[in-house]
Design a protein that fits this description.
The complex is a heterodimer of chains A (247) and B (435).
Chain A (H helix, E strand, L loop, with lengths): L2 E5 L4 H10 L5 E5 L3 H13 L4 E5 L7 H12 L7 E4 L7 H6 L1 H29 L2 E6 L12 H21 L4 E8 L2 E2 L13 E2 H13 L5 E4 L3 H10 L2 H4 L5
Parallel strand pairs in A: 1-2, 1-4, 2-3, 4-5, 5-6, 6-9, 7-8
Helix pairs in contact in A: 1-7, 3-5, 5-6
Chain B lengths: L16 E4 L14 E4 L15 E4 L6 E5 L4 E5 L4 H8 L4 E2 L11 H6 L7 H4 L6 E7 L5 E5 L4 H7 L8 E8 L1 E2 L4 E9 L2 H11 L5 E6 L11 E8 L14 E2 L11 H12 L6 E7 H5 L5 E2 L10 E8 L5 H14 L6 E6 L14 E9 L3 H16 L3 E2 L9 H7 L3 H4 L10 H7 L3
Parallel strand pairs in B: 1-3, 2-3, 14-16
Antiparallel strand pairs in B: 4-5, 5-9, 6-10, 7-8, 7-9, 11-13, 11-15, 12-13, 12-18, 17-19, 17-20, 18-19
Helix pairs in contact in B: 8-9
The chains are: A alpha/beta (247), B alpha+beta (435).
Amino acid sequence: MRTTLLIGATSAMAEQAARHFAPEGDRLLLAARDTERAAQLADDLRVRGAESVTCFTTFDASNSDSVQRLTKRIQEVEGTLDYVLIAHGHLPDQEECEEKPWVALRELQINFLSTVQLCTLIANRLEKQGHGTLAVLSSVAGLRGRQSNYIYGSAKGGMNTFLQGLRNRMAFKGVRVVTLLPGFVDTPMTSGMEKGPLFISADKAGRLIHTAMTKKTSDIVYIPGFWRWILLMIRMIPEPIFKRLRL
Amino acid sequence: MNGDGTSWGGLPAVSQTLYPVRNRTHPLPPVDTHMLPYGLGRSYGDSCLNHMGTLLTTDQLDRWISFDPASGVLHCEAGVSLAQILELVVPKGWFLPVTPGTRHVTLGGAIANDVHGKNHHRAGTFGRYVREIELLRSDGSRTQCSRTRNARWLRATIGGLGLTGLITTVKLQLRPIVSRNMEVEEIKMTGLKQFFDLADASDPTHEYTVAWVDCLATGAQLGRGIFFRANHSETPSSLNSDRTRSFSVPMRAPNWLLNPISIQGFNALYRNKLRTDCHLATQDYRPFFYPLDRVENWNRLYGKRGFYQHQCVVPRDGHEGAIQELLERIGRSGQASFLAVLKLFGDHPPEGLLSFPRPGVTLALDFPNRGESTLKLFRELDDVVMQAGGALYPAKDARMSSDHFRQFTPALDTFLPYVDPAFSSSFHRRVLTPS
């Protein structure tokens, strides 16, 4: 029996990804902030065929003590951890971050520091068991800083570099580290945005995440794939030009 | 899939705000405009539209709560589609108790329209199998409605066109099967008399009966077509599916594509697909129940002007003449399309206050929108239906008159007090505004 741990499990993309793990009869561990929504998700995944579902609530990524409590509970899980998806996150109000540095720091705590805290101990555990896949939901926003959301972007950029290093460290330890780079996904996080043709559904993103984690594809996965080419172009624009663009 | 706030018949777009309901425990949005629940947009007319209002889209309300494989009771959120239910329960040996001709409708929509299927003569309508619902109203109340608790709210909500509030969760009783397959018999039908004879003879022996009629036939040919009758196979076989391919109509076809000549050609081909007078076959449940689901967005074949569907029921006693008159008028007009369906309903009392199915015979067919000439034909048909004491199906309607709606809906005054004051639909306002 496989064990899959989903952190930020009630986020739209993690929920959709979980729906693909459940019919495979996994033991599922869900870490989430909201107890009631985690319980709803657990019921749903049981009907879909999950062998067992356990919820770890209330997990609050903005509070490092809460993150610490979660890592402790993960350490106490018996057996192996085969797949881990870290999917929690928060899209900050960029303008507020520019006015109030403490808001910017809180966003970095949610979107970056909490993940470092979690990944460190989880990676050590996977290293010890000699196998496992650790996938983290980052964002294409982390690949180049833009005036419209560079606090979120820098958190994700930090995460991308952290995961690169971790992947390098785990390369010969049997542990896969996967950086997931979604573009625009129709989720509660983006509910305030105008939906264009680049948007995909959370359902599709979930399916791509499940594939990226379970099939031995690339370690850095754009969701969906066409963002690789969009970002390639965006990253090639020289900084003296880029800094003048309104992006 | 239709999830964009349009209706299936392709009526002109209306101005409305989409609000996704993401969780069953969330309150209704704090909006000033009237609200209407919206599933997959398979209602043909304006019963799923809300001009100048808010559509509560429910495609994300798609979580399971529990399924008991021993009793076949499924508990889930109301935005789950019938397709998703089949995918979950068929491999476990269960099936929908009643299914319409498409599986791409939500559970909430199936209840709100109290849909029927080819087994109406045996099973009645969808609403009969609803054990319990939770109804969320604009005053914030959540009411558990079943046959024993708040039964009158259940009766108002079944067939209630989404006007009594938002259905958040549903408990549904399924029916057992031992095979995915159907034992299907197709019989060539030469006229209306034969339809009634076959329907009467098949009711006790076959769970599913329906007929396709060639609506372009007139005179001695009137009512020719194919009679289908079927049962679930009782030979145990694998319940797991193989994926079938579906095709999609990529864009709206030109308006001239479906014209009397192309439709006549189609009907002749379809009629003659039966080489013998009777054909027996074993087939998967999907092509039997959902032949059109293989062609995604088939509604686009009707072009930019879209199409209407006209579905009526007329009582049978002493009124076999009404169906004949309807078919004659349709045949003479030359406007009908290829999807013409005839079915004998059973004698079940209506499940909901506004339920459409009632004892009698129902005729459903598509008409490409040719403007005033189509509407004129409909007015003639409506008069025939009214004189026969029949009714029209709101889920398919985009233009029936207020007077007709009141005539067709004897329980309307009993129903109206259950309408949520913050809920409304384009259909609701249209048929309740005196013409």
